[in-house]
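Title: Request for sanity check on Threonine synthase prediction

Description:
We are preparing a figure and want to confirm that the structure record we downloaded matches what your pipeline produces today. Could someone re-run it with the sequence below and paste the raw structure tokens into this thread? We only need the token string, no images.
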Amino acid sequence: MTMTTRYTGLIERYRDRLPVSAETRIISLGEGDTPLIRLENIPRLLGRRVELYVKYEGLNPTGSFKDRGMTMAVTRAVEEGSRAIICASTGNTSAAAAAYAARAGITAFVLIPDGKIAMGKLAQAMMYGSVVIQIKGNFDDGMRLVKEVAGEAPVTIVNSINPYRLQGQKTAAFEIVDELGRAPDYHCLPVGNAGNITAHWIGYSEYACGGRDCVTEACAFCNGECRFVSGGPVSTSRPKMVGYQASGSAPFLRGHMVDHPETVATAIRIGHPQSWEQAWQVSRESGGWFDECSDEEILAAQKLLTEREGVFCEPASATSLAGALRDIRSGKIPEGSTVVLTLTGNGLKDPDTAIAQCTQKPVTIEAELDSVKRAILDAL
Ligand SMILES: *Cc1c(COP(=O)(O)O)cnc(C)c1O
């Protein structure tokens, strides 16, 4: 007899490790379970013996990892009786908030930086029917305003300062360990607010945690009392967590907040990260590091990944590859390592940046056989 189980999202899959009860009405769009794609051509180009995987989070329902956090945050908001959610966003959080609010039948208010959000993300926020408020300021201004207004209005904040967001997002680490059979040696990801690097560390730590008899040193997230442990650790190790930032928007490299962040990677155009302390702790505990990439490196990595591996991610996501390429070349990430790169969002989110960097423009010809043949011969 064959048994088929319909995949119904990450809360169902990992419900014993997430803050839900049997009565909880789960707000899901089937998020999670994203492909872990082993790169074949780029390692060969590099000439380095590394096992390089990308976790393609762009295949989530709204096209970014934000869905992992949003299914959990909206599920809990609804359970607690909230009728409206609010967030500041560089685009992807607003798309996810809008979609899950639509699914739940509640209202989403989204504050986005006027003119600094990728076209696909704006289309999503509007199409899903959220209330889109464009502010004449950046993400950090929006975040400050959201915190202020949430103190005075009956709305639930669904930015990553909402702890349920990180609970949902930690499942990406579970999926990676479940699929590889162990934790990778290095996990590289782009850092904006630093919620995601923190969430991954929670996930890896929980899987390595043995509860009261925990051998994981200084696991500050559970303090040896992890309530999500059932039957001992799943993994015996945790990766070094490597966070890459865009040079124009790199508070973790400067060592202080940045007031006027600028980068083509708009999803990480954040100068005042909300998970500042947590991310430093992750870096220390895991033995990882932060580094920065220029906009040119980021765009080159995005193009390389698309052309050589057939994986199209948005610019911010390519920051993880841009940084990893450098660290693999230099040997900081040594040969023999297993490395996972998070590709946070889908390339279709930002068609303008993609088209602008393609030097090969489409040719226009007459609609006749000879013209097509000539075009093909010209290109060969
Ligand atoms: C939100 C986001 C990031 C940054 O994640 P943080 O948790 O803010 O560090 C990176 N890339 C994309 C595509 C995003 O949407």
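Thanks, this matches our download. The chain is about 40% helix and 15% strand.
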